[in-house]
Amino acid sequence: MAEYVALDPNAEVLGITINATLSSMGDPIEILKKYDLYPIVNDVWYNQQKWLNAFKELAQTNFLNLVAIGMKIPDLAAWPPNVVTVHDALASIGMAYPMNHRNGEIGSYIYTPTGENSGVMVCANPYPSDFDYGLIYRTVQKFRDASSTKLVVKRDESKPSRIDGGESCTFLVEW
Description:
By secondary structure, the protein is an alpha+beta fold. The protein has helices at 15-22, 29-34, 48-61, 66-76, 86-96, 129-143, and strands spanning 12-14, 45-47, 101-102, 108-115, 118-124, 152-155, 169-174.
């Protein structure tokens, strides 16, 4: 699956998710208008492909660091009170994604713990891999034990990648 290409033409994304992403993008009004996405209202649903088109153009036009944009999301998201560990937090990304996307095939985030302080995240969605990297990295950073000094998130190069036209990106995570 290619980055920036919705899996289903009917897929939608909730406005609050778009606004959280836009919070690190400056003033994107003209690009949002170009894709018939302005104004963005938090509780309104928007066509995912239009959003991905705008997101791609915003990232290219403003030379934005997609990792940094992904890292903003965990700080803006509301986390359930039962999310207290890194494992909980990474698993909750997969639960939150379908709460903010709907209609048809939207993709997924699937997290599997592999050890006390490690796991694997498979991102099978149309968002850029660098964005997912930032989302995962900041989630681990936010929920790991304060005394922990290790934090590694890397793409598993033995697996297919969306960067190269694969269906998903797999990230190895250690903390």
